[in-house]
Amino acid sequence: MSADMVLFNGKGVTIDAKDTIAEAVAIKFGKILAVGSDNEVKPLAGFGTKVIDLEGRTVLPGLIDSHCHIASYSEGMQRVMGVIDASYEAGVRSIADIQAKVAEQTKRKPKGEWINVVKEDDSKLLERRHPNKWDLDKAAPEHPVMVSTVGGHFSIVNSKAFELAGVTRDSPDPVGGRYERDPGTGELTGWIHERARQVLQPIAYGREPTLDEAKEGYNGWHSNTLPLV
């Protein structure tokens, strides 16, 4: 069987049990046909085979990026120790569950202190939608609230958060971001996208973490012991 492609004269990282580095790789139908030395693999080249001399370059297996943003996530979590976990795994099944958790925090924090919620996922909620400004206002009329979603490109805030940030219905959308508005009334819905989040996040999260705090955040990610509530 002739290969569709043969790569030779390279360094193929096999990631096998012995961490073998192979000179050549043969590919057929998009899958690895053979891995080994040039002498072993090159005979698999036939008519129509694309043969590439790697000239000593490295070949890696296909990698799938899970897109976790571990560094930014762990640092963000470190900034807001004690945040509310709104994930399905934390028992959140509805917007009412989120409201209950936020309302409970209002009893613990002075008026005007931020309440931060993470891991909200509308696909896991009974309502199949994100909470909005009015939902959060009912739970925390005198505390600013920011809810971060699992996607990381979209957040929800309440009226108090907008007030502290100086954002009104007449505020222009920041470049690269958007304050979502009710199409009928023009009122802010609390849904903020992309760069608009960066207008409110520094206020909600406070200062950047120190190096030691960032390291602690990484360790928290690894051990899964960050104190969510």
The gist of it:
This protein has 2 domains: 3-59, Urease, subunit C, domain 1 (Roll), CATH 2.30.40.10; 70-223, Diaminopimelate Epimerase, Chain A, domain 1 (Roll), CATH 3.10.310.70.
State which percent range the strand residues make up: 25-35%
CATH topology of the largest domain: Diaminopimelate Epimerase, Chain A, domain 1
Domain count: 2
Radius of gyration: 26 Å
Q: How do the strands line up in the largest sheet?
A: 8-9-10-11-13-12
Name the CATH class of the largest domain: Alpha Beta
Helical residues, percent:
25-40%
Mean pLDDT: 87
Specify the overall morphology: elongated
Sheet with the most strands, sense and barrel status: 6 strands, mixed
Broad structural category: alpha/beta
Low-confidence stretches are: 222-229
CATH architecture of the largest domain: Roll
> H/E series, N to C?
EEEEEHEEHEHEHEEHEEHH
Question: How far from one another are the termini?
Answer: 59 Å
Secondary structure tally: strands? 13
Index terms:
single chain; 229 residues; alpha/beta; Urease, subunit C, domain 1; Diaminopimelate Epimerase, Chain A, domain 1; 2 domains; 6-stranded mixed beta sheet; 7 helices; 28% helix; 27% strand; disordered C terminus
